[in-house]
Amino acid sequence: MADWTRVCALDDIDEEDVIRFDHDGRTFAVYRDLDGGVYCTDGLCTHEQVHLADGLVMDDTIECPKHNGRFNYKTGAPLRSPVCVALATYPARVVDGEVEVQL
Amino acid sequence: MTLADTDRHSRPRAARDYSLTGPQARAAIETGLASAEWYHSDIPRKAMKDLMRRKDGPALRDTALWIGLLILSALGGIATWGTWATVPFWAVYGVLYGSACDSRWHECGHGTAFRTSWMNDAVYVLASFMVMRNPTSWRWSHARHHTDTIIVGRDPEIALMRPPNLARKSLAFIGIPDVFEQFWILARNAAGRFSADERDYIPESERPKAIRWARVFVAIHLAAVAGALATGSLLPLMLIGGPRIYGCWHMVMTGLLQHGGLAENVLDHRLNSRSLHMNPVSRWIYWNMNYHVEHHMFPMVPYHALPRLHALIKHDLPPANSSLLDAYREMIPALIRQRHAPGHHIPKALPPTAQPFRAEFHALDGERQ
Fold it and tell me: What is the pLDDT of residues B243-288, one digit of tens each?
């Protein structure tokens, strides 16, 4: 099992928002929902390799800033074309006010 | 909007190759113009989130007004049919059907008009029918237009290919021959056939859906034709399909300005797209797409927030044209010149407050003849 990696303080992510997290040559998107839950997915849209962290978080969805394709960021499922391929998701948690992800 | 298919059928022999499967397509990929990173003005995340915020209210209000006016003008046209008093009713109905459909198609296709997804989808299908576009195919076409805006060999929605055929573009204001070609494309899709370009941007998994919608749209239009023949009256075609001819002028008038006369093969929307100020009626019909640079830079901003986006980044953009007339005065001489000098384009100038253009891409348009 991979180690947990610190991302940032929970307060560094607004509620219902996303930040970009680059680690070990890869890029990820880390989300915070309205209930304080945190989630992590691959950082690039599966359609055209655009950074999702520039997109819009609404409810459980992330909308790509380039083509408005949508994913459920909690499951990675594609919800709206032009995205057809699911996003990879990774475990995420909050420990002592710090966001950690397991990559 | 796009009249790209119209152009593709009418190229002079010396025209550039705008197909998506030819040498220009390969050149775009080899030179890094395809699926490239584009320039964006800097906007703080909090401001961007506020601009991107979705609401149902503005589009519900506008759609209720749109549908209400469509019904009232149609009823007025029917009640006065056979008299001169019918003309103004059809003039209004035609523009609401044959032009306003384009902006509703566009915004709901992006999924930004309403917050509620099914509302976007419902208006998108209705507007696709009105504008005679396959709702599935055009989602993919428009996604490519945003990935590779005015990149030759990549963008399927280049309305003014070089050298421009100005006579044909003039006829487009009355839907000729665009409406017949769009219907032919629907009929071809309904028969399960797709062009090489369509196969390039529509995934195979989406094509059955495209076929189903094409069959529905063709069937409704044929029913209108049958109704006209059966009753011996043009009235059914005045209501369905016909407005795409007699009411499309506003869509063409605004749509040609989006990129007309500007640079090809650049990675900065400030060079290849045009923003302009417009009267409030046209802005309502067009759903604020006069802020076209802003829309291309940030397509997740809904139409009702585009004026605020424009105010926020105008220091970083070429000055917007002051009116429709001003924009046409800029575009038409460039189009006339492009008939004999296809490498010519309007060089947009930036204010001193703007981030500079990337010179290496600004030079590309003239080089790739």
Answer: 999 999 999 999 999 999 999 999 999 999 999 999 999 999 999 9
**Minimal CA separation from A3 to chain B, in Å:** 31
pLDDT tens digits, B294-312: 999 999 999 999 999 999 9
User: Is B109 in contact with B136 (CB distance < 8 Å)?
Assistant: no
Q: How many domains is chain A partitioned into structurally?
A: 1
Look-up of token digits 């709206």: A80
Least CA distance to A70: which residue of chain B? B111
Instruction: Give me the residue label for tokens 């057809």.
Output: A84
- What's B154's DSSP letter? T
Range of the domain at A24: 4-102
The domain that holds A97 is classified in CATH as: 2.102.10.10
Measured between alpha carbons, how far is residue B78 from residues A7, B235, B325 in Å? 65, 8, 34
DSSP B361: H
In angstroms and rounded to an integer, the radius of gyration of the C-alpha atoms of chain B is 20
d(CA B220, CA B218): 6
Chain B residues within an 8 Å CB radius of A56: 49, 52-54, 300
Residue of A47, A68, A84 lying closest to B299 (CB–CB): A68
Structure tokens at B212: 């189903």
Contact A82, B140 (CB under 8 A): yes
DSSP state of A10: G
Residues of B in contact with A58 (CB under 8 A): 54, 115
Total Cβ atoms within 10 A of residue B244: 24
